[in-house]
Design goal:
It is a single chain. With 500 residues, the chain is α/β, with parallel strands linked by helices. The protein is 35% helix and 20% strand. It is built from 14 helices and 21 strands. The strands form four sheets. Strands 8, 9, 10, 11, 12, 15, 16, 17 and 19 form a nine-stranded mixed β-sheet that branches. Strands 1, 2, 3, 4, 5, 6 and 7 form a seven-stranded mixed β-sheet that branches. A three-stranded mixed β-sheet has the order 13-14-18, with helices on one face. The longest helix is centred in the middle third of the chain and has 26 residues. It binds ligand BES, manganese (II) ion (MN) and zinc ion. The site of ligand BES has 16 residues, from helix 11.
């Protein structure tokens, strides 16, 4: 989609379609009121016929509105004006995009951007208009022999701002929205690709592709390299698979040479059957999404590179499959991690922490200012928080707060769970330094407790995205989360030079 930012009166728009908000009770938003005046009350008269009330989710396309210059007028229901907030705004922008995608206009001018979202400014409105539009237009038909043949005539969206002085802010917001969307789309594509296509080697190729496109530095460690480093935990998971494991590193250096990087560590488990502790068959196909943490890292780095953020970021993606095999991890096996700590593998399905712990130890060599790992780590997180919030656990409260705030701005929210010492006991093992599972209670927390033992040398946060990385049911598919949260966080960090 092509986006432009413009300030201009709604009644002067000679457009294929003008989009306006309508609150419950047929209450027109400001641009609608002005159009109604220009149309000498024709819009109010039309609305009185009762075809649309303004409830959230309603839309109505009016063709050839009388006495107006535009060819169409699209009313988007926004719900109760008093209850209008970020979510409703995004719903409205999404519905507008879906409606326009199947309409005949090639270009539209949106006045939804004028809607007041409490606590948010015009930059927020524009950025989210772009993100919602891009997300609504996303399709994944790469694996279909017949691509969707519906021709879309819509090409251009004009986003309006109230004053000329807001044009520059608007342009920046559109740029950010597009970069975040590009990162999300990459993460969604990689998640949606099946396990027989999106293998560890495929993820490594994607990282090399970023190197070609943006000049980031990509390094891929092979099994032998990992053996030399003593990554016994990661390698133990890969032993059950015929696909060779990869440890992918991507360095984006937009900041000063001597500036230590932020590190993002993403779980890149390209298919998780559970191993010898095999999963039940129902919905096992969804375990192709177990690499969404790694896909998030690739997506965020793409967004950083698109935005040319003045910051250094290193992405680390441990990647493997987890399958049952004659050489696979067995319950009770004890492996030695790169850190030297030994782990009793009581459940081979708790493999994410095994590949991540070695990746975290490896990350020490970059001297990171902060490390965030992203992983579809526990089914327990889906039970605790559902699909709306990612789980957030951290050994550093200011870092956790930064991420929470970034998530709220990005409308890609996280919710913090405790990482108290008391939970650590659940990982006691009779035979090794720790077990890889902590029992049924607090499964998301004990998984994070395990990782915390490998993150003692830096400020660290963990995002459990098991509930947020993909949707199930009819709308099954990757979401691209938490690319918005993390990119927003990095944008903010790169703007804030006071931080050390
Ligand atoms: N990848 C899964 C977590 C998962 C399961 C995410 C379902 C989303 C939906 C992870 O590797 C796993 O299997 N975790 C186990 C841990 C348990 C054995 C302690 C789980 O959550 O059941
Ligand atoms: Mn598993
Ligand atoms: Zn897994």
């Amino acid at each position: 989609m092509e986006y432009t930012v413009k300030s201009g009166d709604p009644e002067k728009q000679r457009s294929g379609c003008v989009v306006i908000g309508l609150f419950e009770g047929r209450k027109l938003a400001p641009a609608g009121k002005r159009l109604d005046e220009a149309a000498q009350g024709a819009l109010a008269a039309f609305l009185r016929r009762g075809d649309i009330d303004g409830k959230s989710g309603q839309s109505l396309m009016l063709h050839n509105p009388p006495n107006l210059l535009c060819e169409r007028l699209l009313f988007i229901g926004c719900g109760r004006e008093k209850e209008f907030h970020e979510g409703r705004y995004r719903d409205a922008a999404t519905l507008a995009a879906r409606t326009l995608a199947s309409a005949g206009a090639s270009e539209a001018v949106s006045y939804l951007t004028e809607l007041e979202v409490k606590g948010r400014d015009i930059a927020w409105n524009l950025r989210h208009a772009v993100e919602c539009t891009e997300a609504a237009l996303y399709k994944f038909d790469r694996m279909k022999s017949r691509k969707s043949d519906k021709k879309q005539s819509w090409r251009k969206l004009v986003l309006t701002v109230g004053k000329r002085s807001e044009l520059a802010i608007g342009e920046t917001a559109v740029h950010q929205g597009l970069a975040i969307s590009a990162g999300m789309n990459l993460a969604r594509d990689l998640g949606n690709l099946p396990g027989n296509v999106c293998t560890p080697a495929y993820l490594a190729d994607q990282a090399r592709e970023l190197e070609h496109q943006y000049g980031v530095k990509t390094t891929v460690l092979e099994r032998e390299d990992m053996e030399k480093l003593g990554m016994g935990a990661l390698l133990s998971v890969a032993r059950g698979s015929r696909q060779p494991p990869k440890l992918i590193t991507i360095e984006y250096n937009g900041g000063k040479d001597e500036e230590p990087p932020v590190a993002l560590v993403g779980k890149g488990l390209t298919f998780d059957a559970g191993g010898i502790s095999i999963k039940p068959a129902a919905a096992m196909d969804e375990m192709k999404y177990d690499m969404c943490g790694g896909a998030t890292v690739l997506g965020v780095l793409k967004a950083c590179a698109e935005l040319k953020l003045p910051i250094n970021v290193v992405g680390v993606i441990p990647s493997s499959e987890n399958l049952p095999d004659g050489d696979a991890n067995k319950p009770g096996d004890i492996v030695t991690s790169m850190s030297g700590q030994t782990i009793e593998v009581l459940n081979t399905d708790a493999e994410g922490r095994l590949i991540l712990c070695d990746a975290l130890t490896y990350t020490e060599r970059f001297n990171p200012v902060a490390v965030v790992d992203i992983a579809t780590l526990t089914g327990a997180c889906v039970i605790a928080l559902g699909k709306h919030a990612s789980g957030l656990l951290s050994n550093n409260d200011p870092l956790a707060r930064e991420l929470m705030n970034a998530g709220r701005y990005a409308w890609d929210r996280a919710w913090q769970l405790p990482l108290w010492d008391e939970y650590q006991k659940q990982l006691d093992s009779n035979f090794a330094d720790m077990a890889n599972i902590g029992g049924r209670e607090g499964g998301t927390i004990t998984a994070a407790c395990f990782l915390a033992r490998y993150a003692k040398k830096f400020k660290w946060a963990h995002l459990d995205i098991a509930g947020t990385a993909w949707l199930t049911g009819k709308a099954k598919g990757g979401t691209g989360r938490p690319v918005p949260l993390l990119t927003t966080w990095l944008i903010e960090r790169s703007q804030d030079h006071r931080r050390s």
